[in-house]
Write a structure and sequence with these properties.
This protein has a single domain, classed as Jelly Rolls. It contains two helices and nine strands. Strand 5 and strand 6 form a beta hairpin.
């Protein structure tokens, strides 16, 4: 049996989902939007030459989206993003280039056409192993759903430039 705290969190989540008007009598094509894979709204970037960090994150905009949060991650040749963890799950679809995705202590080689999965709360980092080609990744997360339950947790889980955990 669920405790009061769990039920309260579920009630809050359901209220959030209903407020996003996801349950409707609209036909499916009214919620369909095709978005080109062109540079979108940049929502985050980080560049730190000492740590070989050089990447941007762009949001893909879909008006009816509720639970998932698709983003385009662009990592420059020979660079990487920062090592970090977060409460949401992530699927990384490699669209262009080649690299490595470190999940926990294991590195996995990836290239265009492959998919990598990062579970919740696992430290991870993506490396562009090419010296000439940008690594482009479609990152599909359940950020919308997770943030509806936990609030603004993402900034609290980033690591500092020294590689230490951010204050929680």
């Amino acid at each position: 049996m669920a405790d009061a705290k769990t039920l309260s969190a579920l009630d809050a989540l359901l209220s959030y989902i209903y407020s996003r008007k996801g349950f409707s009598t609209e036909t499916p094509d009214q919620g369909f939007t095709a978005t080109p894979l062109e540079p979108g709204e940049e929502i985050y970037s980080n560049r730190n030459q000492r740590l070989s960090i050089d990447f941007t994150v762009e949001r893909m905009m879909f008006p009816k989206i509720q639970a998932i949060d698709p983003r385009i991650v662009r990592i420059q040749p020979g660079a990487n993003n920062e090592r970090h963890k977060h409460a949401h799950e992530s699927l990384f679809v490699v669209l262009k280039g080649q690299g490595e995705v470190a999940v926990g202590d294991t590195r996995h080689t990836v290239e265009a056409g492959q998919v990598a999965f990062v579970p919740r709360w696992y430290f991870h980092q993506t490396f562009n192993t090419s010296e000439s080609e940008e690594l482009v990744v479609l990152a599909i997360t359940d950020f919308g759903l997770t943030s509806a339950v936990l609030g603004d947790y993402d900034r609290k889980t980033r690591l500092s430039e020294r590689g230490e955990d951010a204050a929680e």
